[in-house]
Amino acid sequence: MAVTHLDCAAGVPMLPALTAEYSVLAQQYGWNPHGLTCYAEDARRAILDAERRLLVLCGTNPSSAGVVWCATGTEAANLALRGFPWRTSDASIALDLGAHPALRETARALCPHPICGFLVQPDGMVRFTGTPPATAPALAALSLVNNETGVVWNGDRDAFPPDCAIVLDACQAFGKHPVPWHATDLLILSSRKLGGPATGAALVYRKNLKINPIITGGGQQSGLRSGTLDTASILLFVKAAEMACRDREESLRNVSLLNQRLRDGLTRLGKGGWPIFSPETASPYICYFAIPGYEGAIVARTLAEKYGIIIGTGSACSAESRETSPLLKALGVSDEVARCALRVSFSSHTSPDELARFLKALPEVLADY
Fold first, then answer.
1. pTM of whole model > 0.90?
2. Is the pLDDT of residue 316 over 90?
3. End of a domain among 212, 246, 280?
4. Could you tell me if 330 and 129 are in contact, meaning their C-beta atoms sit under 8 angstroms apart?
5. Chain Cα centroid distance, residue 260
6. Domain shared by 277 and 233, yes or no
7. Does 339 lie in the same domain as 255?
8. Residue 210 is part of which domain span?
9. What is the pLDDT of residues 160-195, one digit of tens each?
10. How many domains does the chain have?
11. SS (H, E, C) 353-366
12. Which of 248, 268, 272, 361 sits a CA distance of 20 to 30 A from 69?
């Protein structure tokens, strides 16, 4: 059974061209890049060149920014928040309530730092909720593209206090939308969202920030993150990023057409009764919706098992767990409807035929529910 992958926000398989190249690079750069041999020097130089190229893609350069190579976006998020140079014990954090759990749960674990919550609106503006803390936030943590709704932050740094550092999760955005480096101090990137190696990520930081390490040991990466680097994975991460950024505009046009076809199909199938949580202004790569009366986890599982179509629920909700998306709760969506949420997310390689296959299978799944 052919597999149709429409949950690309969760990551996409490694691109075939990069898969073929990995074995070659692993042989060429299989040495410890932190060693003292000439082979180690070759690997070090390749990594430094990859760092320079990645910074260019982010809109900056090695004179003002550095890169900490990580294994996952979750690790990079933890390094950004836990390694942030907190000046006082009562400093507060401004937290995007719709952020990925890697940011949201880490921020909440950083007691006694109080949380100042906000939501990114469909127009990209920030709206704070609740009572502001006594002290101005020292750090703001948010997503450039929300991993559930696809809402895009407009990059307005003035939404936060002048001295507030900004941690920006760009895992869903990098290679698809421009990165607002002017409004960023700590930038989280992921390789697997680009079709690169699954264990590749990076934290890009402004060099005027003194980050404290959370992994210590051999003092690699200037002591910011100890551990031997995988040169081959880093090189393929950056190559995947370059390919995505090169084709970004064309991919955006194609995916925008797919997104509109999906919205039209959902409106037709649901006769206008299926809520779509992703606004029209959201990233076209993501469409988050609900089919009231049908558990999202059951629909997603049936699509996968019977039709080979992979979509997401967009939250922790499942038939076994009654927990629903904190973002939908913050948006005022009832738990009953939130449990029916589904997320379709495209990649630059998604085809119209794959979308048509999903729209054809969906009513069949509902009929047999």
1. yes
2. no
3. 246
4. yes
5. 22
6. no
7. yes
8. 31-246
9. 999 999 999 999 999 999 999 999 999 999 999 999
10. 2
11. HHHHHHHHHHHHHH
12. 248
